[in-house]
Amino acid sequence: MVLLSECRSRVILLLSLSVIIGLLNGSGVEARIRRYKWEVKYEYRSPDCLKKLVITINGQTPGPTIRAQQNDTIIVELTNNLSTENVAIHWHGIRQIGTPWFDGTEGVTQCPILPGTTFKYQFVVDRPGTYLYHAHYGMQREAGLYGSIIVALPDGQSEPFTYDYDRNIILNDWYHKSTYEQAAGLSAIPFQWVGEPQSLLIHGRGRFNCSSLTIPTSDTGVCNTTNPDCAPFRLIVVPGKTYRLRISSLTALSALSFQIEGHNMTVVEADGHYVEPFVVQNLFIYSGETYSVLVKADQDPTRNYWITSNIVSRPANTTPGLAIFNYYPNHPRRSPPTSPPAAPVWNNSRPRIAQSQAIKARPGYIHPPPLLSDRVIVFLNTQNRINGNVRWSVNNVSFTLPHTPYLIALKENLTHAFDQNPPPDGYDFVNYDIFKEQENKNATLGNGIYRLNFNSTVDIILQNANTMTKNNSETHPWHLHGHDFWVLGYGEGKFDMFNDPRKYNLVNPIMKNTVPVHPYGWTALRFKADNPGAWAFHCHIESHFYMGMGVVFAEGIEKVGNLPSSIMGCGETQGLYRP
């Protein structure tokens, strides 16, 4: 009865919160409860024509799209039928105000969901926009466990642009090795890199060249280009109509360019915030980012056109992703009469930086940042060798998750559950040469966290550098849980603590939750530490986070409500789990 009463109290609290948020936002519209029941399990699928085990939700990959309106409450009852694997789902871009325990980050905000059990996520979607959900346990995301969250404005409210139809497309890269094989190689001595993906998927569909299999097989079912699973994704459009395309990336490794042959795209939204519109032919997009673009079907309607995705910022050894921009009433299987458009030069970072700098807040929807910050933390992104293993590090500390999730350890004052010493706020700015291959002999493993004063303003400088390979620096998309941040600026070379802040955009910076740091460059962010909880901030490349490229922020822990027992059951909370 106590547990039942506790559940009822939580439902009332969440509903009250959603109503309050609605009133604060001026909507005055009663929020709805949207319920979903999901079964997560392994099934054989052939998304790029090669059959392999993938993780599905109710038999789907990508999973079902969550559609809601601002201030609605989402309830997802997730049953883990993976049999031998834990799971956790992160609601990417949803700030979890008042519900930090449902952020879905295993090791940070919850214990994993055990096989055969059901876990209930319950949270409010407090802002309209385009968001994502995906696995946040090990490297499961790249096994197919992901989907979209689309949050509309309340009834009676309108957006600052018009369109006729709304569609969403998730971009991904695809590996034939299982996540376990990849993880074993990343942890091995000698190191075994995951390599480049075998295919690029456009909304769950791609095309692998079956004749290129390194181990030929007589079983035609293993790789079959006639399998309907890998038939190209087709976006059917009506001539003369304008389409809002919500483009998202959940790649495991790759930065991408996205284009529609012969059509311009007007960027109007990024990570749930309205953008001062600008036109592109190539949309550069990094793992964890979401954009809305407006496309008008204004070309020759007697033919179809290519939709393509291509890898940038890494050598382009993977076949482009292909889909069809299908003008009605042309037959969906009718291929375009032209070759797919040429890909951008993979190692030319200038147009990518230019796009990053072009993304500004739309007039009338600008949230001005605080003019000054209370704390500046510089994160040097480096590759290191620790105890014989290749790792990624931040300020020479390679992140490892503790056995007891941070949120529980902090709230219950389990001080021995993780290292209480804070990681460094910077690096040797004067002597470290970001353009030189470094030995980084003093790198260590660590699980300490950054404790932020509640309501303080924090600046983060992401500083890129050379890897352990000569003349090599990689693109890293960084994602912050629980917050949006202002993107104050990008630069090339080493960040100058005295001069570069004078160049910050404090007038109309865009707010985002995911942002790239470009090769040999820096990115400056500012955010308010105003959401009580423990929040991950990490590179959104699966293998990089697995190899230690991340940190955790803690803020306002004393303001966090009573933790639900459903998030417990691991580490020092064994025996406390209650479904």
From TrEMBL:
Location relative to the cell: Secreted
Family according to the record: Belongs to the multicopper oxidase family.
Record keywords, A-Z: Copper, Disulfide bond, Glycoprotein, Metal-binding, Oxidoreductase, Repeat, Secreted
Keyword Nucleotidyltransferase (UniProt): no
Assembly with partners or alone: Dimer.
Keyword Cell wall biogenesis/degradation part of the UniProt annotation: no
Every Plastocyanin-like domain range: 40-152, 169-328, 439-556
A matching Pfam family: Cu-oxidase
Cofactor field: Cu cation
Catalytic reaction list: 4 L-ascorbate + O2 = 4 monodehydro-L-ascorbate radical + 2 H2O
PANTHER family: L-ASCORBATE OXIDASE, MULTI-COPPER OXIDASE
Top-rank taxon: Eukaryota
One GO CC term on file: extracellular region
EC number: 1.10.3.3
Protein name (record): L-ascorbate oxidase
Molecular-function GO terms, alphabetical: copper ion binding; L-ascorbate oxidase activity; oxidoreductase activity
UniProt-listed CDD domains: CuRO_1_AAO (cd13845), CuRO_3_AAO (cd13893)
PROSITE patterns: MULTICOPPER_OXIDASE1, MULTICOPPER_OXIDASE2
